[in-house]
Amino acid sequence: MTESGPAEIWQWGEYYCPWTYVATARLRAVMPELQGRATLRLRPYPLELIDGYAAPRDILEQEWWLAAIQEPSAPFAPYRGDDWPTTTMPAFEAAWCAARQGEDAFADFDMRVRRAFFAEGRNIGNPEVLREIAGEAGLDLDRFDRDLASGEARPAIVEEARLGREQYRVRGTPTLMLANGTKLRHPLAYPDMEGNQVVSVAALPCCGEGCLEATREVIERALPG
Questions:
Q1: Residue-wise pLDDT tens digits, 151-162
Q2: Residue 46, exposed/middle/buried by CB under 10 A (0-12, 13-18, 19+)?
Q3: Helix (H) and strand (E) counts in the chain
């Protein structure tokens, strides 16, 4: 804890990213233990704004199962539909609207969106699906609709992505850091890619419950004092 209050932990993430899904599930599990010492802020980083295109399905489906085996508490299932989302910007906009209804509302909605895509095969690029998820999360749908119609969400998300890239040197998702820009490393085994194919993956740094402990240690080591 600093003199001004709990330390802020930031995670920049993408709704397409299976590694962000796994990392967020772990952070949500360990952060209550750090109440009063640290708070979590999820910041949007839509890779399509950075790269100029949405993540290809063939690449994501290779990463899908490499992420799935690393965190049992983050369920995965094959995406069997022919309506693969071509953008996650609607999901970011909907999450921005959910955040207007409080941190708890946002946290619940955010994880529901990630599970909807990775575990339930739902098209999170479809605004109607996102409104269904908002209803399932118990959000005030009238307010949700008004906030979405205001047109304020997208500029706010674009600005967050700009800040992440230009000021905080975010280059991929998830990127975990302190509010002063100090980057932390999630205990995840990421793949190496060549020609849009996974060619290798690092050794798993943890497994099962040990990954929560490893995540906890990453944050504990970074906290002041």
A1: 999 999 999 999
A2: buried
A3: 9, 6
> Residue 198's domain is classified under what CATH number?
3.40.30.10
Whole-number average pLDDT of the chain: 94
Domain total of the chain: 1
CB burial class (10 A; 0-12, 13-18, 19+) of residue 172?
A: middle
Task: Identify whether 1 is part of a domain.
Answer: no
Residue 168: inside a domain: yes
Cα(47)–Cα(19) distance, integer angstroms = 13
CA–CA separation, 62 and 112 (whole Å): 22
Residue 121 tokens, joined: 């095969």
pLDDT in tens, 112-121: 999 999 999 9
